[in-house]
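Submission sheet (multi-component)
Chains listed below:
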Amino acid sequence: MADRPRPPISRRRLLQASALGVPGAWVLSSCARAQPLGSPAPAASAGGGSASAAASLPPLTEIPIASPQNPVKWPINPGNEPITSGLEPEMNATLRVYNYPDYVYKRVLKDFQAEYADYNVKVELSTFNDLPEALTKIRSGSVPFDVGFLTYNYMGKLVYGDLIRPLNHDYIPNISDVWEEFQNPFYDQGWQYTVPYTIYTTGIGWRHDLISEDIGARANPYDVFWDTKYAGAIAVLDDDREVIAMTILRNGGTDVNSGDPAVLGQTRDSMLEMLSVSQPRVTITGYTDIPEGTMSLSQCWSGDMITGQYYLPEGVDPGLLRYWSPPTGQGVIGNDFLCVLKGGENPVMAHHFLNYMLKSEVAMKNLSFVGYQPPLRSLTPEAMVADGLLPANLAGAIVKPEWFQVGYPLLELPVAVEGEYQAIWQQFKSGG
Amino acid sequence: MTVSPAPAEALLSEAQEPGRDRAPRGMSGARAHGLAAITAVYLLWSLVPVAVVVLFSFNAGRSRSTWQGFSLRWYTWDPDGSVINDESIRNALTHTVLLAVIATAITVPLGVLFALALDRWRGRLPAGANFLALITFVIPEIALAIGLLFMVTYLATPFGLGTTAQIIGLVTFQLAYPIVICRARLLTISAHYEEAARDLGATALGAVRRVILPMLFPAILVSAILVFADVLDNFVLVRYLSSDASTETTSMRIYQVARAAPTPALNAMATIILVVSTLVIVVGWLLYRRWSKRQGESTDLSSFAGNL
Amino acid sequence: MPDRTSRFIWPILGLPGIVWIALFFLVPLYVVFCVTFGTVDPIFRSPVPAWNPLEWQFEQVVVVWDRLVGPNNFYLPPVLRTLLYVVVAVVACMIIAFPVAYFTARYAGRHRALILALLVAPFWISYMMRMLAWINLLQPDGLVNSIITLGGIIPLEVNWLSGNPFTVVMGLIYGYVPYMLLPLFAALDRISPSLIEAGRDLGASGFELFRRVILPMSVPGIVAGTLLIALPMMGDYFTSDMLSKSPNTSMIGNLINLSIATPGQSGQAGALLILVLLVLLAPMIWYTRSNAKAEVRS
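Outcome: structure written.
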């Protein structure tokens, strides 16, 4: 039914034929990218070489790790100075935006195009499933992404990989509306590179008619993922850090960035136990799976259940959605940020986009779709409830400012520890 | 996805002689009926789910499982979600068709020339290349996809991830179709035709152009259809070699959205691609029928020679 | 009247194809080896390919090997699972495809062209669309549950889409069975009716006829179909992704797909891929060569 190779190929002939390619190997090596795209660039101190301790870091033996206890002011690599003030946005730009799926309201992007219609800007949204994937793609340099919606636990790699562009604050006056602590966040002192996007806690979401139990009333609510009762009906986030952190908290730990081999070993065993006990699905689509009833309960981010109201099938009462995270605030807490990526072709328009997203009305409109609150002074939780964005049954999904003092942020990890985390994750995802 | 091409060609020729009854005499009717029932059940199982997808693309509501009335909402007027208004869906459709057209336009000539060469050119180099081409036919697609991804990422190729890389991957993966199909056809075309043409004064190139290529027409047509339809369907290669949203295809879109927050617009998009591939096949079949009718009138050698 | 061009014309016609295959098939495969046997950047954990085979290191292969057969062999379950799924799916495809192909080849009569067209139809329908179809049908409130619960009368809610291995195998069967059907049809179609009648005249019963004539003669079709569906299934990750999304149904393809996107694991993905290719090399070569033989015979 197919072909007759003439003359028939003997095994020897095959070897000879394939051997033809081998001498070409050295040709290839001369074609190799001289410096892999996005490889470490020599670090230098910020403009003027101030005496700031953080700015005079050794080039690249180890990336510093930012934490609330150890805030970091990142260096600015030579040749990567901010754009100068007063530039006109690029004409006919295609602004390439890189984000999680369903994590920005498409109407907001359309509005931006309309507002900058004079410049004929087109916003093109591309999506990633998790941050390792995003970082891999950004580093490959294959797409000139302008704006990234990213998380701070990859901040060091973004800076030292020369992937991110420092901001010129003149273009972003709307920063004044941002909560004080986010104008000087621990992961980016002096907001040299980032503006905050949303804040969130990580907790548990469920549909009350499918799971009648009040999960929050359990002594250890995280135990629900190890409960045979809900086998096959639950999911955890498709995110290595979140699942490992949740397992550490469930086992009574509080260091969600632990590098302790004993803790990690125990965590891995617990995760494998979860697989066999409750057969969770691993996905970030809880915001539709729970409302639609495909899943009954899922580990999720605080915004997921708020946005989940939008995905409820017609005729299902929005009051059925529930969200729990530790009411003391002692759970995983975090925020995402917006940044201008260095590979982008439209840095000026990108600055305008960041400023636009911080505008109160825009943030409010965006919140109505994505369900995550931005840390803006003009958008208090009280105002959100009053505006009907947050129904009473989801009050637990509001992130309180004081929780940032007691919550557990997921920090960047030392390289070796990161490898450990990813190995555990690979084992988990391969089903034991 | 690999398809065995020969039966597809058989199908096209099958269509030429309908009503060929091959049931042996005196077979038990009961067995035939039992087999007929199995076949009917199989066809239902195979096609009804697809029909449901098409049906729900016309649903008036958001649901993909509860029928809420007929509407073209998800094709035309829904302000955010319809095929016309959702730019990502529109873009996926145009990009998919673009890839299919370009990949077919490159694959088919490349493969036909290669098949012609293999028919006459003896030696280790062509034999080895032929063998490799056949291996691309059965190798798991993910292997080729990752190889090309690594190549584009770590070698200073003049092109990056995106449309060019996708086309290169697709052409490599599909190249075996025209090679295999045309070579099978070449085996049935007697070398005498060409020799006779040459005796009448045609150059080698002229003989290929005037005698062999016209006789290869059905094989070329069939391989073009197969490549086109298979590229429309491709997922693994186009996903690994894609860059940003502008290089997203319909299959990638379905993969991403099907488990997240799909609306019937996704069904509408899938339905449109189904219509496109059906159209291509129908047009291909009509062309084939016209060709064979014309061949029926003049297939003798003298008419060929006369044309030279 | 031999002209000069004729000696060079065939290599010239063939050259573009050869160059293409060398550039875009051999080179990528070689790069996989270079990445797999290369090193890893200490900070970013991105691969640093080793272009010179003399500098190749085999750490990643050792890591992968260790995870396959070592004390913490967590690659083994997905590998075994993949083999199990593929075997079950192939056997099921065969059981489904055989009677259908046999009917079409032998009894379809006037409807033969129509039935063949319907059998081929799935080729023109995107795989993803066909998976989407099942996602719709298998929703908790979808058609399948409505039917098995008789519209909610029987309280038997099956959650098909959350890590149900049955669903994944069903998806594989559904997705790949057409590729088994056509070669099988081609083989069965070649059996001459007179041969069967001769067997019948010699007194063979229906079963004997099947065992002694039809089955042996359909072996090439069975083999071709098996390889055509088994080889791509080995690298399949999207069926499990679409219909399950649970680690409990992860296949080798999922493992490779996950590793590719994770910093520091590209080499492991490459090593896994090379292992899969090594295992599949023999069947792949055998398939291309048996095809060649079949061509000679016909």
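Remark: The mean pLDDT of chain C is 83.
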